[in-house]
Amino acid sequence: MAKAQETVLEIDLDALAHNYRYLRSKVAPETKFMAVVKAFAYGSDATKIAFKLETLGVDYFSVAYVKEGVALREAGISRPILVLQPQPTNFEAMIESCLEPSIYSPRILRLFLAAAQKLDQKKYPVHLKFNTGLNRLGFCENDVAHIMECLSDRDEIKVEAIFSHLAASDDLDEARFTEGQISSFEKITTAFHPKLGYRPLQHLLNTSGILNYPAAQYDMVRSGIGLYGFGNEAKFDQELKPVATLKTIISQIHRIEPGESVGYNRAFKANGHQVIATLPIGHADGIGRQYGNGATYVFVHDKKAMIIGNVCMDMIMIDITDIECKEGDEVLLFGKGASAENFAATANTISYELLTGISQRVKRVFIGH
Ligand SMILES: *Cc1c(COP(=O)(O)O)cnc(C)c1O
Question: Relative to the CA of 352, which ligand 1 atom is closest?
Answer without folding.
Answer: 8
